Amino acid sequence: MGRVRVALFLTEATNHYQKLLESDATAAAERNGFELELSFCSLSVARQVEQLRSKIQESAEHRPRAIIVMPAQEGTLRDEARLAARAGIAWVVLNRRGAFLESLPSEFPALPIFAVSPDDFEIGRIQGQQLRASLSRGARALLVRGGSGTSTAVDREAGLREALARSEIELDVLYASWTLDGAKKALDVHLTTPGRGRRRLDAIVCQNDSIAVGAMQALEQVAIRRSQPELGQIKIFGCDGLLEHGQRYVKQGKFTATVLVPSTTGPAIDALARVFGGGTPPPSELILKSKPFPALPGKP
């Protein structure tokens, strides 16, 4: 029998966090003796569906034993998940909660079908703790959300608000996108809109580090364009914490802090290896813990 074939479907080849997922998947596949096939969809739902269906419909000797996928858009791929299960292909969803799988794990108990996700509520709580440690009472912060309705954005905001309760830090929300350019454009409009741009702002808290870079660039450009050097004093908080991205910006003093969000591909492949090796199937949801960077005062 040949090596176990696993197909990994990610969204953006140039995104820093996606690159982490790719590198961790490659290492985990080598560690477990798997053959890894990788595809990107450039955030196109239609393209991702096409890629998945093509892989599922391959002949039995060529189709993968497992599919690992980060959906390009929340609420999609339910039909593809069912098609995969009917073809006897394990299905793993990345960075989405287990509810996304609906009844599939119980309908196909012989197959490993599960989700692997960071604890997004806890990520929000960490960001709230970072704000409390860095800002004084009465400070005003702006949350730049990665999306208006995704569970990731919703859970991270909920955790942030819980951590800020009774802190006397005022929080406003700006709906943007998960991309650097989208966040930069949204912030440029926000900062230059009469009645908004002139309000005091002490911090911008971002739901990933790409958003935080967009915030940094928007602040720099608006400060020059409107002769407002004080914008350079606004603290920026990121999230993802890759070594050569978020962590680097913290060390350079461009970000006040970030959150170290773990890769989900390594744990997903390791879990599959345990099952294929005769071990117990994982629960329908594997939740991974994140850490603040730098460490919060009084904590290791």
Give an overview in words.
The chain has two domains: 4-118 and 262-288, Response regulator (Rossmann fold); 120-260, Response regulator (Rossmann fold), CATH 3.40.50. 40% of the residues lie in helices and 19% in strands. It is built from ten helices and twelve strands. It has helices at residues 16-32, 45-56, 78-86, 104-107, 120-134, 151-164, 180-192, 209-225, 246-251, 265-276; strands at residues 4-10, 34-40, 66-69, 90-94, 113-118, 140-145, 170-175, 203-206, 235-237, 258-260, 285-288, 291-293. Strand 4, helix 4 and strand 5 (113-118) form a beta-alpha-beta unit. Helix 1 (16-32) runs parallel beside helix 10 (265-276), helix 5 (120-134) packs parallel to helix 6 (151-164) and helix 7 (180-192) runs parallel beside helix 8 (209-225). The longest helix has 17 residues, at 16-32. The N and C termini lie far apart (47 Å).
